[in-house]
Design brief:
This protein is elongated. The longest helix is centred in the middle third of the chain and has 63 residues, at about 300-365. The strands form 3 sheets. A 6-stranded antiparallel β-sheet has the order 2-1-4-5-6-7. By secondary structure, it is of the alpha/beta class. It folds into 2 domains: about 1-180 and about 425-575, P-loop containing nucleotide triphosphate hydrolases (Rossmann fold, 3-Layer(aba) Sandwich), CATH 3.40.50; about 245-365. The protein starts with a strand and ends in a 12-residue tail after the last strand. It contains 15 helices and 13 strands.
Length: about 575
Amino acid sequence: MFLKEIYSEPEGLFDKVKFKKGINIISGQQVKQEGEKPSLNSIGKSTLISLIDFCLLSKFDKKHKLYKAKEFMDAYKIVLKVEIMKENYIIKRGTELDKKIVFFKEGEKEKEMVLDDVKRILFKKMFPSSDYSGVSEDKWFRTIVSLMIRNEKKGFDDPIEYIPEVRRKESTIYHLMLMDIDNTLAVKNYDFIQEIDKRKKELDGIQNTIEKQYGKIESINNQLDKLGKEIKSAGEAQNKFRLEESYKEEEGRADELTKQIKQLILQNNTLRELLGNYKDSYKLEVDVDPKKITSVYEEINKDLGIALKKTLEQAIEFKAKLIESRKDFIKTKVGEIEETLSKNSEKITELDMERSKIFSFLKNKEAIKDLKELFDLISEKKDKYNDLKGKISLIEDINEDYLNKKTQYSKLQEEINEFLKNIKAKISSLREIYNEVYDSLYTSKEKEGFFDIIFDKGKQAKIFIIASSQDADGFGKNRGCILVYDLTLLFNIAKNNLPYPRFWIHDGVFNGMYKNQFVSTMNLLNKKSATIDFQYIITLNEDEETIGDKKFGQLDFNIKDHIIAKFTNRTEGKIFKREF
């Protein structure tokens, strides 16, 4: 994939920018204005990079660089034309409806889609996995693109951990993919770490809960044994418990009353069911129409119809009398049942009141107080025992799973170590590119940099990518290392014709780096562009383009020929030709 051009639709938001193979410079130039201190900040260099990133579906919210221009940008769409596998595609996106994307092949009908669908499509086109031996998932789209578009805000802190949200154990997966190294074990490593951390947090959470409620984990089994013995002892006491001799009669009477109440309740339930059945039988009606039947037979024989009608009417009259007689019978039965139910209810109330008096008497005499307390105590201890037993059982299950994962993880690490031994040739090829770029930037051999991919048991990533270089001064610290590493990835993709994007964007990478490093990097890029196809897009200020002091080295080409966009500190020279 190569970038072709970017512009607005309709025209007028900013001037169209066309990209070329090789070096692409977005330039900032100072124009002195009376009474003003010249500044090259907020003129449009980084904004142009943000427009490219916006079209490549970056998250658009209040933190986005373009958000403060939303009010006037809402009237436009940003259009990015790209070339993928020698075919041109158009991406259109606006700030007003940033989740609606227009994406189509040039020459075909425009198609509007939702953001996530376009991400999936672009991933498959920009990072096809058909020839890749490792894992490739479309949900990685924006994370990988963020590696290829580094900016001043958060992109130049570390070559591998290139954004704060993505730690090395995860970012290694994407780096290996771009190197065309199988990342399957790196993905497994990441998944294992996630699972192990999850189990560890669950385990710690349950243990903390238990310790707050029951004390130290070490004493829990002792507490369980103690609770078990207490429950057993209390149960035996409950079984042996007897009321005092002087209250035996009251206890027996209470039992007898309870039995009578239960019998009456059972009888009432049976009677209510019978009552319902009787009432349902009221619904029996005569449903024969003599006229309708007679008319049918009259068509055959009139005399037969008349005779049949008379017979039917007599039968219906008889049935009606029979039904009426049954209703009288049911009515009598319903009355009897309702009367019995009423008497039983009164009896139940009477017996319950008598039983309540006995219970009250016994309670006042504290005859059953101890038994109730014993029952409550047993219930409380059983609840505590079951709760504690359940938590301990859960801990044991999670701990077993945790230990199994750790065992499997140890085996995975052995696989990783063996895997890295088997790809030494590929690592060596990458190191060769790295050293070529490194040697062009650093002439001093006092502190040599190096590239390697090793197994490091002490690191979470396990597959540990090393990209080391001499430190630049102050503000530029780490940038030399990042520059060397990123160009290694870009040159490796181009050299081996990998089906990945051939562009890399650095916004402000040379800020704080030595001038001679800038010169040597530009010369190397110019030299490489003659043999391999790539796009290296950078933002530069005018003083970096017009280096006249030969002590920094001499550019082998006219750098101004590679300026694709130029912005100044004057309002009319800024990207949107206005302040924002």
